[in-house]
Amino acid sequence: MTEIKLKQVRKSYGEVEVLHGIDLTVESGEFCVFVGPSGCGKSTLLRIIAGLDDVTSGAIEIDGEAVNNVSASARGLAMVFQSYALYPHMSVYKNMAFGLENSKMPKAEIDRRVRDAAEMLQITDYLDRRPKALSGGQRQRVAIGRAIVREPKAFLLDEPLSNLDAELRVTMRKELAALHASIGDTMIYVTHDQTEAMTLADKIVVLQDGRIEQTGAPLDLYNNPQNAFVAGFIGSPRMNLIEVTANKATEGWTLSAANLSVPVPEIAGLTDGMRCTLGIRPEHLRVSTDDTGHMTCKVAFTEQLGGETYLYCDVEGLPQITVHQPGQLPVVKGQQLALNFDLSEMHLFDADGQVIVNRVAG
């Protein structure tokens, strides 16, 4: 297994700097996911690790050895692309064996590796077919199999599931997780889909504008975001973020905005009249049963999914509020609701978006 370390990695295209001093260690055997919005630099960072792009400055180390001047082919890494990149005129077997044949590996060893990988990925029955005769999921398995047969130091996967339909993506996520558990190799995976990040990763690296915003285990980022960007990006549906004003009165502190008024305990760093951002996840809002609550709203849209209900609610002067409730909720468009906030699950961020406290009343 392989450790990959980045030290102050910067990348510029002319005058435009796209990576701004990235420091990161991917531990041996770790499934590390780079996630962030389009254009945040995650694919560029992966290509730099692979050796497909050069760094402007900084160092890349693989198992303690600097590889800045080592070619992509000599780094011992295997990359799986979004587009599969299969040879259309070759069979599945030949696609998987091609790189090994070019390295002059003995035929018996090539055959063993191809058939072992095919069995692991459940594509043995397709070895004689060409890519055009395969489904999208089968083609992706072939692309992954072609990487596996190389027995690389680490796997690099660049949005490998983005061309698949929703149901197949779920299936392939499970298979990738099982594959990592089986072979135990270091994997770095790029996606803009935070659901993939949450379900696959040992460690998530959240990127924005070429900088790392936060690194940690999925639930750590979900429960303890260090800034409003991470809070809003990790989680589906996203956290509700509401600009509020802190008010101190004789009866205690409140956070208020429009018709919202939430009582909170005294919080270090909070001052009277301070503008900040309150974060509350959709599952931590409750519909009041007696028409009294911390906020009143009007239902704009509902999603009744049988086992759960999503409400999208309008409040004048505030962004739309999303509520997630288990089970079936008899609510209709246009209905007025009162919402209560779970005070132990609120987050508070300062004017710069940096966390003041996670779990305000926890």
Descriptive account of the structure:
This protein is of the alpha+beta class. It has a 6-stranded mixed beta sheet, sandwiched between helices. It has a 6-stranded antiparallel beta sheet with strand order 13-12-11-14-20-21. The chain has a 5-stranded antiparallel beta sheet with strand order 15-19-16-17-18, with no helix packed on it. The mean pLDDT is about 95. It is built from 8 helices and 21 strands. It has 2 domains: about 5-230, Rossmann fold (3-Layer(aba) Sandwich), CATH 3.40.50.300; about 235-360, OB fold (Dihydrolipoamide Acetyltransferase, E2P) (Beta Barrel), CATH 2.40.50.
Layout of strands and helices, then pairs:
Blueprint: E1 4-13, E2 16-26, E3 31-35, H1 42-50, E4 57-62, E5 65-66, E6 77-80, H2 92-102, H3 107-120, H4 136-148, E7 154-158, H5 166-183, E8 186-191, H6 194-200, E9 203-208, E10 211-216, H7 218-223, H8 228-233, E11 240-249, E12 252-257, E13 260-264, E14 275-280, E15 285-287, E16 295-304, E17 308-314, E18 321-326, E19 336-341, E20 347-349, E21 355-358
Parallel strand pairs: 3-8, 3-9, 6-7, 7-8
Antiparallel strand pairs: 1-2, 1-4, 4-5, 9-10, 11-12, 11-14, 12-13, 14-20, 15-19, 16-17, 16-19, 17-18, 20-21
Helix pairs in contact: 2-3, 2-4, 3-4
Silhouette? elongated
The total of helices stands at 8
CATH superfamily of the largest domain: P-loop containing nucleotide triphosphate hydrolases
State Rg: 25 Å
- Could you say how many structural domains there are in total? 2
CATH topology of the largest domain: Rossmann fold
Give a short account of the largest sheet.
6 strands, mixed
Task: Provide the helix percentage.
Answer: 10-25%
Distance between the termini: 40 Å
Indicate the proportion of strand residues.
Answer: 35-45%
Judged by helices, strands and strand pairing, the structural class is alpha+beta
Tell me, rounded to a whole number, the average pLDDT: 93
Q: Just name the CATH architecture of the largest domain.
A: 3-Layer(aba) Sandwich
What's the helix-strand series? EEEHEEEHHHEHEHEEHHEEEEEEEEEEE
Are there runs of 5+ residues with pLDDT below 50, and where? none
Q: In what order do the strands lie side by side in the largest sheet?
A: 6-7-8-3-9-10
Number of extended strands: 21
